[in-house]
Each structure stands twice: as structure tokens, then as C-alpha cells.
Design brief:
Elements (H helix, E strand, L loop, with lengths): L37 E4 L12 E5 L5 H9 L3 E7 L2 E3 L13 E4 L5 E4 L4 H18 L3 E5 L14 H17 L3 E5 L5 H4 L5 E5 L11 H5 L4 E5 L8 H7 L2 E4 L9 E2 L1
Parallel strand pairs: 1-2, 2-3, 3-7, 7-8, 8-9, 9-10, 10-11
Antiparallel strand pairs: 4-6, 5-6, 11-12
Length: 259
């Protein structure tokens, strides 16, 4: 989940820096290596001309044809899904019973889910991951994976979050897809073996990037985005830590600056 920031903060500073090439994937599903460059675009028509080996795009909004076009250019494609929050505009929103929908998470139209109710959520999330697989995605970025640390309207515990996050990872792996741990820094030591990469927002701004070391130490990529800091404030540390870091604007359109 992106952090709550006032609308006025949407203007980001920019600067240029270099990227690190991707290692080859191996095994039964893709395993991105530390330092691989990426593009994160969740809004608008995907610009397939950005010269990076990894794209992270919206699973519902983008078609299999877009994924195929990116594959044609030799790129891996990550499917963005919200697995921990309900979104009122999604085509399957009506399939979620009110009993599992909690407080708003700070973003318009989004409310936390009761992740303890795996009896309800597992088939819904399995259908979403099936959608990603059918469109040809290589991996899943499941968002809102740290509800237990927020006011969700449910008495969620750390153990509930670990169980649910591992369930999401299994759904992806069972379908031959890689899966990333989104934020949820406190549980990285317990979850690093269950996930193939990490996705993080603003670890430099909040002094948290060292918490992501277990992924890099395990040979797994950390896809990292900042919104408010210029690249001169975080790229040096990102290169030292082998993070795949970019500067984005909050709307997550085409614009990016890389390290």
C-alpha cells in the first residue's frame, strides 16, 4: 500500500542515474536477481518503450496483448493486485461479502479485508491470480500485505498476516509464477524464504532500507520506489545495497527516474 501523502506532495524531484542489468532467471518460475532495472506503471496506457527488463503493471486494467507485447521485447511482467484490501471499482468487487470488508485504508474506494477469513478470500484471490496467469504474467505483486499493523476494523495479529501472506505466495507458486512481498518490513525474516522478490515504497525516506537486506542476501531482487526524495538522496545507498530503485510520482504513470 502506498503511504498516505497529501495531494500537494505529488510533485517529485528528478535526476538521472544508471541501472544494473538483470541476471538470467532459473528453476520452475522466474527469480529476479538483485539490481535488475524495472518500470512500475499502474495508470494509463502502458508505454512499452521504456528500456528495462522488468515491468510491473495493473493485472485488471492491462490485457494479455500488452503482456505479450512486453514479452516480445524480452521483458518479464509483474501483475499488480490488491490482495489485502477491497477496491470498489474492480469487476469482482461484488463477490466480496460485507463481512470481510473493513475500514478504509486511506485511498478512495479501498477498504481493508479480514484476512483471517481465508475460507472466503482464498477462492477470490485464486481467481485473481488465475487471471494473471491466463494473461501470461510472470509474477504477482500482491498489495496491502501488512493489514495487521493498521486500523483495519478487525483484530488482526501478526500470525494472521504470516498465514495469509504465505497463502498468497502459494497461490502464485502453484501456478508457476513468482511472487513479491510488498512492504511488510517487520515480517521479512519470517517470509523471505516464501517470496521471490520484494517491492518497497519509501524505505529511504523512512530509514528502512537496511531491513530489506535479507532479500538481497538470498539473491532476490528488491524493487524499490521513492516519491519525495531526489535520486541524489538515495541512489548511492541503493547501489550499495543492490536495490532496484526508481523515483516515481504518486500517480504511478509512465514517468520515472532510475538509479
Amino acid at each position: 500500500m502506498r503511504r498516505l501523502i497529501p495531494l500537494a506532495a505529488l510533485l517529485a524531484l528528478s535526476a538521472a542515474c544508471t541501472t544494473v542489468p538483470e541476471d538470467r532467471p532459473s528453476g520452475d518460475h522466474w527469480r529476479p536477481r538483485p539490481g535488475v532495472a524495472w518500470q512500475w506503471q499502474l495508470r494509463g496506457r502502458v508505454d512499452t518503450s521504456v528500456d528495462v527488463p522488468v515491468y510491473d503493471i495493473d493485472g485488471f486494467d492491462q490485457s494479455g496483448a500488452t503482456v505479450t507485447a512486453l514479452h516480445r521485447e524480452g521483458r518479464k511482467v509483474i501483475c499488480y493486485l490488491s490482495t489485502g484490501a477491497w477496491e470498489d471499482w474492480r469487476p469482482d468487487a461484488g463477490r466480496f461479502p460485507e463481512s470481510v470488508i473493513g475500514r478504509g485504508n486511506g485511498w478512495e474506494g479501498e477498504r481493508w479485508l479480514d484476512i483471517r477469513r481465508t475460507d472466503v478470500l482464498e477462492p477470490l484471490m485464486a481467481a485473481r491470480v488465475d487471471m494473471c496467469r491466463k494473461k501470461g504474467f510472470d509474477a504477482v505483486e500482491p498489495d496491502n500485505m501488512d493489514g495487521y499493523r493498521n486500523r483495519t476494523g478487525f483484530p488482526l495479529k501478526a500470525a494472521d498476516q504470516l498465514r495469509y501472506n504465505r497463502l498468497i505466495a502459494k497461490l502464485a507458486h502453484d501456478r508457476g509464477m513468482a511472487v513479491g512481498l510488498k512492504n511488510d518490513l517487520d515480517q521479512i525474516p519470517q517470509l523471505v524464504d516464501d517470496f521471490d522478490f520484494a517491492v518497497n515504497e519509501q524505505c529511504a525516506q523512512y530509514g528502512e532500507c537496511d531491513d530489506l537486506r535479507p532479500f538481497v542476501s538470498a539473491g532476490k531482487a528488491v524493487f524499490h520506489a521513492e516519491y519525495e526524495l531526489p535520486t541524489s538522496r538515495f541512489c548511492s545507498d541503493s547501489r550499495r545495497l543492490k536495490l532496484s530503485s526508481i523515483l516515481k510520482k504518486y500517480e504511478l504513470g509512465v514517468w520515472r527516474r532510475s538509479c
